[in-house]
């Protein structure tokens, strides 16, 4: 691994966003009508042995196996659509959090059917692990909490012996923190006390050193079954912004995703330093392309399913 | 009822509310397109526009559930600031 060299000649990054809840109404039509999505959905159906679209329609859970595979497929379809219809030609790729899986498929590190299978199997691993382990841990996100003001609050938690860890550095003053569910109310109140705003609580939690067992389980039961080829384009790691060139490095990035925090500002800093000025955020993103560290420093192309389904004149973007 | 400035500011964050349609106090802002990131942005816009800081109890997504709830929070905050 190594940091991108300053002004490294990159111009456009393909970004696969982290996953959030996506209502069926936002993606259903895209999955059956968009030619890129339809082709990928057919591959996913073959691998899964059931209809992805039917499963999504019938089970509205935000993070079911089908929801995770659908998010993955839709991100890839949006990327292909952006290349074909918007003329996006990336020279570097990244994928914060869940987006790592789409990076693997997009850069050819895994063949598409393998990447679908890996996504589904990791979803199963998560379900099994968190059904038994750390059943009281959730991840709370909040904004408007500058580091200088939030650190003393974390210190108080430490003094009281309450485990907590930053799982996601989303932007300046925007964090996702993993913590016992019984402490969420206390932390949310303290965040409000410094002028911050709690947003939502997520379960399953992710990206914390406490989940080493999940990393080991995923490596043993899923990741070890695949050979990771070298990526067709350089990849920026979502944990620290380092530039990756080999399949082995991407395998490590995927495993680190279980027990290391995601750091989006480090990724956007690295992209900016390497010359990137345009981000194509491919998929149903409600966060990564919109926070200031991305939106205020890059020309962001939001290649969303909704946009792909809007009739428009073919345009070319350099 | 709220003033025109408030409605103009809020409408700017509601992509699914047509210009020709009234903004009802009980309208669900999420249904009209206000997601959590835009709620945070709207909070800053309102604080700057009215030169106030929302107090602890208002710093919650619940404040942004309906236009009516949001306006009552602004009114209450202005009221406190005037004392």
Task: Give a brief outline of the structure.
Helices cover 46% and strands 16% of the residues of chain A. With 318 residues, chain A is α/β, with parallel strands linked by helices. Chain A has a 6-stranded mixed β-sheet.
Structural commentary:
The complex is a heterodimer of chains A (318) and B (83). Chain A has 13 helices and 11 strands. By secondary structure, chain A is an alpha/beta fold. A 6-stranded mixed β-sheet of chain A has the order 8-7-2-1-10-11. Chain A has a 5-stranded mixed β-sheet with strand order 6-3-5-4-9. The relative contact order of chain A is 0.19. By secondary structure, chain B is mostly helical. Chain B has 3 helices and no strands. Chain B is globular, with a radius of gyration of 12 Å. The A-B interface holds A 143-144, 189, 191-193, 195-200, 286-287, 290-291 and B 35-37, 40, 43, 53, 56-57, 59-61.
For the termini of chain B, the CA-CA separation is 21 Å
Which ranges of chain A are low-confidence, i.e. pLDDT below 50, for 5 or more consecutive residues?
1-6
Helical percent range of chain A? 40-55%
Largest sheet of chain B: none
What's the helix and strand layout?
The complex is a heterodimer of chains A (318) and B (83).
Chain A: E1 12-15, H1 24-33, H2 35-48, H3 52-58, H4 65-86, E2 92-94, H5 99-106, H6 112-132, E3 137-143, H7 147-159, E4 164-171, E5 174-180, H8 184-193, E6 197-202, H9 212-221, E7 235-236, E8 243-244, H10 247-259, E9 262-263, H11 264-273, E10 278-282, H12 292-295, E11 299-303, H13 305-308
Helix pairs in contact in A: 1-2, 2-4, 2-6, 3-4, 4-5, 4-6, 5-6, 6-9, 9-10
Chain B: H1 4-11, H2 36-50, H3 67-82
């Amino acid at each position: 691994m190594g940091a991108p060299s300053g002004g490294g000649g990159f111009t456009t990054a393909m970004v696969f966003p982290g996953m959030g809840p996506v209502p069926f109404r936002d993606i259903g039509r895209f999955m059956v009508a968009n030619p890129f999505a339809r082709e990928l959905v057919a591959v996913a159906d073959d691998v899964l042995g059931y209809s992805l679209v039917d499963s999504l329609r019938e089970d509205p859970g935000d993070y079911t196996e089908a929801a995770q595979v659908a998010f993955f497929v839709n991100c890839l379809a949006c990327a292909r659509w952006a290349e074909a219809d918007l003329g996006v030609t990336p020279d570097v790729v990244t994928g914060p959090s869940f987006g790592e899986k789409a990076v693997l498929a997009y850069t050819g590190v895994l063949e598409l059917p393998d990447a679908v299978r890996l996504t589904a199997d990791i979803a199963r691993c998560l379900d099994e692990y968190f059904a038994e382990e750390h059943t009281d841990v959730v991840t709370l996100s909040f904004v408007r909490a500058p580091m200088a003001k939030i650190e003393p609050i974390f210190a108080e938690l430490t003094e009281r012996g309450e485990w907590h860890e930053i799982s996601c550095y989303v932007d300046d003053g925007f964090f996702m923190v993993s913590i016992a569910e019984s402490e969420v109310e206390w932390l949310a109140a303290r965040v409000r006390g410094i002028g911050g705003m709690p947003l939502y609580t997520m379960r399953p939690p992710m990206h914390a050193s406490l989940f080493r067992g999940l990393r080991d389980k995923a490596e043993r039961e899923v990741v070890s079954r695949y050979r990771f080829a070298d990526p067709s384009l350089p990849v920026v790691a979502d944990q620290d912004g380092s530039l990756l060139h080999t399949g082995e490095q991407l395998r490590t990035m995927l495993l680190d995703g279980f027990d290391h925090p995601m750091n989006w500002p480090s990724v956007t800093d690295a992209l900016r330093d390497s010359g990137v000025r345009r981000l194509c955020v491919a998929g149903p993103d409600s966060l990564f392309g919109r926070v200031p560290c991305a939106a205020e420093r890059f020309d962001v192309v939001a290649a969303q399913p909704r946009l792909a389904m809007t009739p428009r004149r073919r345009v070319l973007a350099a | 009822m709220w003033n025109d400035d408030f409605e103009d500011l809020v409408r700017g964050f509601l992509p699914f509310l047509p210009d020709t349609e009234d903004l009802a106090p009980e309208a669900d802002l999420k249904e009209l397109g206000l997601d959590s990131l835009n709620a945070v942005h709207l909070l800053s816009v309102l604080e700057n526009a009215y030169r106030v800081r929302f107090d602890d109890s208002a710093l919650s997504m619940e404040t942004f559930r309906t236009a009516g709830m949001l306006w009552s929070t602004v009114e209450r905050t202005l009221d406190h600031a005037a004392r």
